[in-house]
Amino acid sequence: MIIDLKQSSAFEEVFASDNSRAPPESEKQIFRRYLTDRPWLGRQDAVRQQLASTGRLIGVTHDALTPVGILLDGLRHQQPMSVIRLGDGESNLLTWPYHQQTLILNAVCVREIIRIQEIKIPLDIQEIELMRELLFKSICAADVIGLIGLQRFPKINQMGENDAIFEPTPDEFYAIAQADWRGGCGHVRMVEFACADLPKVNSSALFCSAHLYIAIGRSLKRLSAAAKRTIFVAYGNGKADAIMRRLSASNIQYIDLAHVLNGHHEVTIGVFACLSAFANSIGDIEPGTLVLISAGPWAELFCDIVKSKGGVGVDFGSGLDFFSGANVRPVHTHFDAALIEG
Prior knowledge:
- By secondary structure, the protein is of the alpha/beta class.
- The chain has one domain.
- Helices cover 48% and strands 14% of the residues.
- It has an 8-stranded parallel sheet, sandwiched between helices. A two-stranded parallel ribbon has the order 3-10.
- Helix 1 (5-16) packs across helix 6 (103-115) and helix 8 packs across helix 9 (181-196).
- The N and C termini lie far apart (42 Å).
């Protein structure tokens, strides 16, 4: 995706200003009209239908086993692969050039997604554009792409019980976005990108639910048995200890990105420096090596590196936390982590 220089310059000017910390009412109303014009964004059947028309939709729920089967085949045949997931974080870094009428809103979302990462890039327009270009490259090279919008879940009511599946209307999406511009704006923009642009950006990748990490986590014993070696990658000491004990296999390794990047609670680092440090830490990869990565939007770029080295890179997302017993996302209340199947 090539950015027009005028677009980049306009975004840079806004991003550098103090005004980029809160969207003005005029941009809020533009975003609201955007939602009103696309009432299908919250309806899972409409999203499924659009992606099914590509002939490449292989699973729409968190427990679909087709992505697991594809991973098993790739490991057994020692085929390099990249399995990524696209959510609101990737959306905010990737899609802002499409939305030139909401430059301040774009800047708010980009700033926030950088702020909440453990591995932060500098608040510099060149670094942001570089991250976006490499994210786009990783999407082009991916073999399986997990997407939000394919699977909606019930809301939890005040009694703690499940209601009917919640498919947000435009007004409901707008209320969600007002409470969290990063999450709400990023979510709907990624759903539209997935349906309108992704099939053209990558003409061969297979599509499935962004929650595929649940099926992968439940199948870790089989996946690890099929792999020459299994490597978990995350930020923080001991993040994979619990799940590695449950697997009780000898061919498993953990890479702590905090140690790799000389960070503590968090670290700020340039894009190329981070990618170089990761590539060095992973070293030479034997074909058939499975690398499960929990690193926010960085995971997509890391998966691309793993594939280029001959391994199988998987964005495991919050699966590492979830299968270690930590329900860190509201959606985790709908899943059962009690069993890692054989």
